[in-house]
Amino acid sequence: MKLYELVGKDKTQGFSPYVWRSRMALAHKGCTVEMVPLIFTEIADVEGANAKTVPILEHNGTFITDSWNIACYLDEQFPDRPPLFNGAQGKAQANLFNNIFFYNLVVPLFPALVGDIFNVIDDRDRDYFRTSREARLGKSLEEAAAQQEDYLAQFRKQLWPYNQTLKAQDYFDGASPAYSDYIMYGLFQWAKGVSPCQLLNTDDPLHDWRARMDDLYDSLGKVIKPRG
Ligand SMILES: N[C@@H](CCC(=O)N[C@@H](CS)C(=O)NCC(=O)O)C(=O)O
Questions:
Q1: 168 Cα: distance to centroid of ligand 1 (angstroms)
Q2: Interval between CA 61 and ligand 1 midpoint (Å)
Q3: CA angle 182, 188, 192 (to 5 degrees)
Q4: 228 pLDDT tier (thresholds 50, 70, 90)
Q5: Is the preceding omega at residue 55 within 30 degrees of 0, hence cis?
Q6: What is the mean pLDDT of residues 185-206?
Q7: Quick check: 57 and 18 in contact, CB under 8 A?
Q8: Domains, the chain, with CATH or none
Q9: Three-state DSSP class for 165?
């Protein structure tokens, strides 16, 4: 199996939040995977994948794109291994979690990190990244970076339901981690991989949860080194 991921100048520090979901999901399933680093402007060139984004999973000559599809594929292909979704109802709940999570957390975090991302990407990606992200932001990367603290404050306010949930349970999926946890963990791997800013207070339940997630699968997530 191969998992195509997104890197910047440092090819060991894959920072895509969506790739991290798939990477953790593959580890959860006990799958051994070869990571294939790509920069933004190489993604469309992966022959046979017909992809615009990573992650891309290649398995027995089949390409699966989109992290959600990859998770569904893994549960279908390996039904005897620990499930990522607890049945059809669990999958439907994870889908809701994913969409709320996107709206609550990804949307405010993207402008907070965009200036830091620009500093870590490969030089060959800089024009593409600036043009595409400035169109999405409706402002320059520098203007967004100057407002980083405001965006982070908005982001931190949105953490309340997630911290509250972890007061009653160890993982978003209950007593042990599964796909909702990997959705959340990807976000923190993204921030850690590109930015020195601290998203959490040490007394946030999410802080301890993240430490537990860091220890999973031979500390897989710790391949990302803090920038701060
Ligand atoms: N819905 C997709 C989103 C994936 C995505 O947005 N990936 C980003 C990296 S974090 C990407 O490949 N972007 C390529 C680009 O913007 O050109 C998924 O879940 O896999």
A1: 32
A2: 22
A3: 135
A4: confident
A5: yes
A6: 98
A7: no
A8: 2-77 (3.40.30.10), 87-222 (1.20.1050.10)
A9: helix
- Nearest alpha carbon, ligand 1 atom 11: 53
- The answer for residues whose C-beta is within 8 angstroms of residue 124's C-beta and 6 or more apart is 39, 41
- Residues 16-40: what's their mean pLDDT? 98
Alpha-carbon span 223 to 113, nearest angstrom: 20
Bridge partners (DSSP) of residue 36 are 4
What's the confidence (pLDDT) of residue 178? 98
Ligand 1 atom having least distance to the Cα of 17? 10
What mean pLDDT is predicted for residues 134-154? 98
For the residues 161-167, what does the mean pLDDT come to?
98
| Ligand 1, pocket residues at CB < 6 Å | 6, 16-18, 40, 43, 53-55, 66-68
Substitution candidate for ligand 1 out of 6, 18, 101 with most atoms within 8 A of CB: 18
Q: Which two tokens stand for residue 66?
A: 């989109």
Please name the residue ranges forming H helices in 107-178.
Answer: 107-120, 126-137, 141-146, 148-157, 160-168
Q: φ and ψ at 31, to 5 degrees?
A: -90, 135
Task: Quickly count: other Cβ atoms within 10 Å of residue 223's Cβ.
Answer: 13
Torsion of CA 22, 33, 84, 99, to 10 degrees: 10
User: What pLDDT band is residue 226 in, cutting at 50, 70 and 90?
Assistant: very high
CA of 6, closest atom in ligand 1 = 9
Contact 83, 96 (CB under 8 A): no
Angle at 66 between CA 61 and CA 72, to 5 degrees: 80
